[in-house]
Design a protein that fits this description.
Pfam families: Glyco_hydro_1 (PF00232). The chain has 452 residues and is of the alpha/beta class. The chain has 17 helices and 15 strands. An 8-stranded parallel barrel has the order 1-2-3-4-5-7-10-13, surrounded by 5 helices. It has a 3-stranded mixed beta sheet with strand order 6-8-9. Strands 11-12 form a two-stranded antiparallel sheet. Helix 7 (136-151) packs parallel to helix 9 (184-207) and helix 8 (164-172) runs antiparallel to helix 9 (184-207).
Length: 452
C-alpha cells in the first residue's frame, strides 16, 4: 500500500480543544468558554481553560510534530484572540501568537493548514444572535480576510469552516454543543449563514488573485439501510425516509458547496412537516444559487457510518431510528467501519464535479493507559491502517485524494465529553502536561517516512 509522492500526511487539532490560556493576552470570551463554565453542559465539569496548554507549549509541540515527520499541520485560529468582541479593535497579542506558531511550523518544514472557524464564536457575537443573525456574514468576512491577507505568503491552504453540520445541529437543534440552543428553524438559519459566509470568502480570495486554495471541511456519514444490510426486501417508504434522513446529514451541505443548491426533496419534506417555512426555503435556494462559487478543495471528516431503519414511532424529524450492528466500536461508541470511507469517497466522485479532496480528520478514541512510561495503543494502529487502505483503494478507483490528516495530533478536550476521550497520537497527562508518544505515533512516523 504505497501513496503518491507529495501526498500530504498531516495531523489536526482545534484551538479551543488544545490552547488553554482562555483569558490571557487580551483574548475575549467565546461561546465555548461560556458553555463549559455553565454547570451540567460538559462531563465532569471539564473546561478548556488550560486544555493542553498549547498556547505556552507550542514550540515543544511543533518539535514533536517534526519528530513525527508531519508534512502538514491543520489547526484553527481562535476568533476571540484576534477580535475579542468579534469585530472592532484587533488584538495584536493574539496575532503575535499565530505569527510565532506559523513561523515555527515553516522553520521545521511543516505546512500550516488553517481552519478559520472551528466552533469558538466570540460570545459578544452570540449575544446579538450569533450564526442565526444575518449580520454574522460580514463579521466573519472581516475576520477571515484579515487573516488570509496577513498570512497569504506563508499559508496556502485555508478551510472556511469545520463541520457546518455540528455548528448548526449540535449547537442549535440538539443543544449539546455551544451555544446550547434547541430550535430546528434556528439551526436552518445557521446552515444558510454559514454557506453565504463560505461563498463570500472563497469569492474574495479568487477575485483578489491571492495565491491560496480555499475549501471547507464537512463531516460526512455514509448511511446504510438495516434491512438491505441484512438482505431483506426494502419497502419504498423505508428507502425514501432513510434517504431523506441522510440528506440532512450529507447533501444539505455537499449540494450547496459543490452544486449551488440545497436538496429540494429534503426542503419539500421539511416544509410539509412545518420544520421550514415555504417562503424561507425559496429564499434560501435563490440566495445559494446567486452566491455559489466552487471551492478549490473539499475537506472530509470521516469517523463512522450510520445504519438506520424505518420506524413510524420515531419522535425524530424523520420516522427513522438508529441501529447498532454487531462489530468493533471505539470509546465514543462509534463503529469501526473503514469500508464507509471508501463508499463515501466514491459517492462524492460519482455525484459531484471532480474536486481535490483531503481527509481533514480521521481517527479513533481508545482507553489509552500509560504503562512503564509508554502507551500501547495497538487498536488505533489497526484502525489507521484499515482506513489508509480504504483511502488508497478509493484513489485507485479515480478519487482525487491529495492528503490525510489524523485526528488528533494529541489528546484534548473532546467537547461535551470533556477529557474522557483520547484521540491523540501523543498522550497528554493533564495533571503535569507531560507529552508521551503513543505506539501509534511511531507507527505513523514510519508510515509517513516510507509513504507506504
Amino acid at each position: 500500500m504505497s501513496f503518491p509522492k507529495g501526498f500530504l500526511w498531516g495531523a489536526a487539532t482545534a484551538s479551543y480543544q488544545i490552547e488553554g490560556a482562555w483569558n490571557e493576552d487580551g483574548k475575549g470570551e467565546s461561546i465555548w468558554d461560556r458553555f463549559t463554565h455553565q454547570k451540567g453542559n460538559i462531563l465532569y465539569g471539564h473546561t478548556g481553560d488550560v486544555a493542553c496548554d498549547h498556547y505556552h507549549r507550542f514550540e515543544e509541540d511543533v518539535l514533536l510534530m517534526k519528530e513525527l515527520g508531519l508534512k502538514a499541520y491543520r489547526f484553527s485560529i481562535a476568533w476571540t484572540r484576534i477580535f475579542p468582541e468579534g469585530f472592532g479593535a484587533v488584538n495584536e497579542k493574539g496575532l503575535d501568537f499565530y505569527d510565532r506558531l506559523i513561523n515555527k511550523l515553516i522553520e521545521n518544514g511543516i505546512e500550516p493548514v488553517i481552519t478559520l472557524y472551528h466552533w469558538d464564536l466570540p460570545q459578544k457575537l452570540q449575544d446579538i444572535g450569533g450564526w442565526a443573525n444575518r449580520e454574522i456574514v460580514n463579521y466573519y468576512f472581516e475576520y477571515a480576510m484579515l487573516l488570509i491577507n496577513r498570512y497569504k505568503d506563508k499559508v496556502k491552504k485555508w478551510i472556511t469552516f469545520n463541520e457546518p453540520y455540528c455548528i448548526s445541529f449540535l449547537g442549535h437543534f440538539y443543544g449539546v454543543h455551544a451555544p446550547g440552543i434547541k430550535d430546528f428553524k434556528v439551526a436552518m438559519d445557521v446552515v444558510h449563514n454559514i454557506m453565504l459566509s463560505h461563498f463570500k470568502v472563497v469569492r474574495a480570495v479568487k477575485q483578489s488573485n491571492i495565491d491560496a486554495d480555499v475549501g471547507i471541511t464537512l463531516n460526512l456519514t455514509p448511511i446504510y439501510l438495516q434491512t438491505e444490510r441484512l438482505g431483506y426486501e426494502v419497502s419504498q417508504i423505508e428507502r425514501e425516509m432513510v434517504n431523506l434522513s441522510g440528506m440532512l446529514d450529507n447533501q444539505l451541505f455537499t449540494d450547496p458547496v459543490l452544486k449551488g443548491s440545497y436538496p429540494q426533496e429534503l426542503f419539500d419534506y421539511l416544509v410539509q412537516k412545518d420544520f421550514l417555512e415555504s417562503r424561507k426555503a425559496e429564499i434560501m435556494q435563490q440566495e445559494v444559487k446567486e452566491n455559489f462559487i466552487f471551492p478549490d478543495f473539499l475537506g472530509i471528516n470521516y469517523y463512522t457510518r450510520a445504519v438506520r431503519l424505518y420506524d413510524e414511532n420515531s419522535s425524530w424529524i424523520f420516522p427513522v431510528r438508529w441501529e447498532h450492528p454487531a462489530g468493533e466500536y471505539t470509546e465514543t461508541g462509534w463503529e469501526v467501519f473503514p469500508q464507509g470511507l471508501f463508499d463515501l469517497l466514491m459517492w462524492i466522485k460519482e455525484t459531484y464535479p471532480q474536486i481535490p479532496i483531503y481527509i481533514t480528520e480521521n481517527g479513533a478514541a481508545y482507553n489509552d493507559k500509560v504503562e512503564d512510561g509508554k502507551v500501547h495503543d495497538q487498536k488505533r494502529v489497526e484502525y489507521l491502517k484499515q482506513h489508509f487502505e480504504s483511502a488508497r483503494k478509493a484513489m485507485e478507483n479515480g478519487v482525487d485524494l491529495r492528503g490525510y490528516f489524523i485526528w488528533s495530533f494529541m489528546d484534548n478536550l473532546e467537547w461535551a465529553m470533556g477529557y474522557t476521550k483520547r484521540f491523540g497520537l501523543v498522550y497528554i497527562d493533564y495533571s503535569t502536561q507531560k507529552r508521551i508518544k503513543k505506539d501509534s505515533f511511531y507507527f505513523y512516523q514510519k508510515f509517513i517516512k516510507e509513504n507506504s
